[in-house]
TrEMBL record:
Residues 16-187 form the N-acetyltransferase domain. It comes from Planobispora rosea. Keywords: Transferase. This is Putative succinyl-CoA transferase. It comes from the Bacteria.
């Protein structure tokens, strides 16, 4: 881990810990994916990986993380944090960027096991990764997006202060579907109390970030 210190990085909130998953954590994430993430009639993801059979869904949960770790460079990276709630793996909160050293912009995405819905975890884990991006990496903006019928994700973006940033059109399960884009500026962000970042210093070069703010 000396050469990839991101595995020691932690982002904490009053209820959550965000960390890169261990192999045991990946087992738990795979089990969550098999249990279910959303209602079967809905599809919140641009790539419909949850439409696959359970065994394939479980493998996808593993392979996604391996792919991101293998492809990581300071110029283009995706950091998929496992979300830990009450000692249990609850989902994934991702943050990614391209040319962050220049753009100072990140994008976020996430999923949460269905049995953890309705507890405010989705909002808290998004806030955690925004704290990491703005106060840890020194980001100037963060983007997110969701299908127009993904009301939970849209509500989180609006609750956290994002501004509308336009509409995109996609094909979802063979039909036309729109997503709404959102953007949050650093000046519009206030870190909630009780949030922290641990072990960031050695990781900064891997994120293309030359300094940490507020850590």
């Amino acid at each position: 881990m000396r050469n990839f210190p991101v595995f020691r990085l932690r982002v904490t909130t009053p209820r959550l810990e965000l960390r890169l998953p261990s192999l045991d954590d990946l087992d738990d994430l795979a089990d969550l994916a098999v249990e279910g993430i959303h209602d079967p009639q809905a599809m919140p993801f641009l790539f419909p990986w949850t439409d696959a059979e359970p065994a394939s869904r479980a493998r996808s949960a593993y392979q996604f993380h391996f792919r991101q770790w293998a492809a990581w460079t300071p110029q283009k990276w995706t950091c998929p944090f496992a979300v830990v709630f009450d000692g249990q793996i609850a989902g994934v909160q991702e943050v990614s960027a391209a040319d962050f050293a220049i753009t100072r912009e990140v994008a976020t995405g996430s999923w949460l096991g269905k049995r953890f819905h309705g507890r405010g975890i989705g909002t808290e884990m998004r806030a955690a990764v925004l704290h990491f991006a703005f106060d840890g990496l020194g980001a100037q903006s963060a983007t997110s997006g969701a299908f127009t019928d993904n009301h939970a994700s849209l509500a989180i973006s609006r609750k956290l202060g994002y501004r509308d940033d336009g509409v995109d059109v996609h094909v979802r399960r063979g039909e036309r579907a729109e997503t709404r884009r959102f953007r949050l500026l650093r000046d519009d962000w206030t870190t909630p109390p009780g949030f922290g970042i641990h072990g960031l210093g050695p990781c900064l070069p891997l994120f293309g970030a030359d300094r940490a703010e507020g850590t």
